[in-house]
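Lab notebook, bench 4. Still working through the backlog of constructs that have no structural model yet. Next entry is a single chain of 303 residues. Request: give me the structure tokens for it.
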Amino acid sequence: MKLGFVSAILPDLTLEEILAFAAETGYESVEVMCWPVERATRRYAGVTHIDVTPFAATDAARVQALIAQHGIAISALGYYPNPLSADPQEAQTAVSHLKGVINAAALLGTPAVNTFVGRDPGKTLDENWPRFLSVWTDLIAFAEAKQVRVGIENCPMYFTGDEWPAGKNLAISPAVWRRMFEAIPSPCFGLNYDPSHFVWQQMDYLKPLREFGPRLFHIHAKDVRLDRHRLDEVGILATPLEYHQPKLPGLGEIAWGRFFSELGAAGYQGHVAVEVEDRAYEGSLASRKAALRQSLRYLRNFL
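Model written out:
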């Protein structure tokens, strides 16, 4: 396994600066954010370290030269919109840009693109299903033609009032994953698995590693702290940020030794990317870099 990090936490650095930091710190890879160049609509969105609009062979050669210079791999290209948004324009933009990211990954020889399946939060799973089939059958066919794997993350994407309780992502549980992979059985369709999202949903975060091993394309290393006292006050029907906080690996509920043991037993040999969303470390660029250094030191114990 190779240890890397998600570039979204360093929006103030260029791609070259990020690769240099990764190399000097001891990381082996980076998941590079590829949002459209526009104002962010939520935290950690709108970060563009590779602009894929447009992206040609000459652009790929420039990025590959930086990769070779610093000796850092790109584990995946990341873009996390809502391709099934109730707003047709938002959905169309997401799908179009996602295809641009997939195209860029193909030109770079990058193994995966990470994203969300999306959801219309005003509809049930079954009501979303025909649109999911239409949009994602086409997207995965496009990815297959480009020989790029698409890893869908399991974050429910419900934190604010307009997202709760349905959320903006269908792919949040093994029950849904089975249904998706049965409907679209492509080897290019798999998971970018983040165990922290299962913890606060009170789900077993180790069990999916056993069942979905062949579908594990990429892993996010993020921990989570549950405030049990607050949960006793507001209950599980409160918005999730009422009772949980994303934390650095080792500062939350996840038993990372067991996690990596199960990951190894599943045969996973890919990239594990630290995803920093810990507000305690967001005060400055220096503290965000410190968070990445601390996470590396901790996770090295298990790799």
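Notes after review: The chain is about 40% helix and 15% strand. The first strand starts at residue 2 and ends at 6. Flag for follow-up if needed.
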